[in-house]
């Protein structure tokens, strides 16, 4: 089922054969994922929206346009989800060379300033689903480990 990416759209994201959670398109490339594991089909967008956001990442559009994640509704974004999401970049072979990118703007940064940010990378739908499974199963996610900031212990 083909769908269009629409800012503010809520998405049903499978975790496994039984459970799912919800994500949301918050900008042209960035999606937020809620801490809302359930086996019920929730249609109350306000209920989902009240949940904590686990993480915000850049997602390959196939997740929506090819129908891997079904749009269940659309709602205006709250102000906190309209704020540009910062990501870090780090030069390969030179971990001290870092920058922070938010939307189309980039600025030099120290490694310390990048701590706690997600790496600038595009995630596929199946990697997000695995990351969510790992989160709910209490195990470390291999992709998250591979993309962590280098040089900080």
Description:
The chain is of the alpha+beta class and 153 residues long. It has one domain. It is 23% helix and 35% strand. The chain contains 6 helices and 10 strands. β6 and β7 form a beta hairpin.
Write a concise synopsis of the structure shown.
The chain has 153 residues and is of the alpha+beta class. It has helices at 45-49, 62-65, 79-82, 111-114, 125-137, 142-146, and strands spanning 9-14, 20-25, 30-34, 53-59, 70-74, 86-91, 94-102, 105-109, 118-119, 122-123.
Characteristic terms for this protein:
153 residues, alpha+beta, six-stranded mixed β-sheet, four-stranded mixed β-sheet, 23% helix, globular
The assigned structural class equals: alpha+beta
Alpha carbon gyration radius: 16 Å
How many helices in DSSP terms?
Answer: 6
Strand-residue fraction? 25-35%
Question: CA-to-CA gap between the ends?
Answer: 44 Å
State the major sheet.
Answer: 6 strands, mixed
The strand line-up of the biggest sheet is 5-1-2-3-4-10
Label the overall shape: globular
Total tally of structural domains? 1
Number of strands: 10
- Provide mean pLDDT, rounded: 95
pLDDT < 50 runs, ≥5 residues: none
Helix content class = 10-25%
> Helix and strand succession?
EEEHEHEHEEEHEEHH
What does the secondary structure layout of this molecule look like, with pairings?
Blueprint: E1 9-14, E2 20-25, E3 30-34, H1 45-49, E4 53-59, H2 62-65, E5 70-74, H3 79-82, E6 86-91, E7 94-102, E8 105-109, H4 111-114, E9 118-119, E10 122-123, H5 125-137, H6 142-146
Parallel strand pairs: 4-10, 6-9
Antiparallel strand pairs: 1-2, 1-5, 2-3, 3-4, 6-7, 7-8
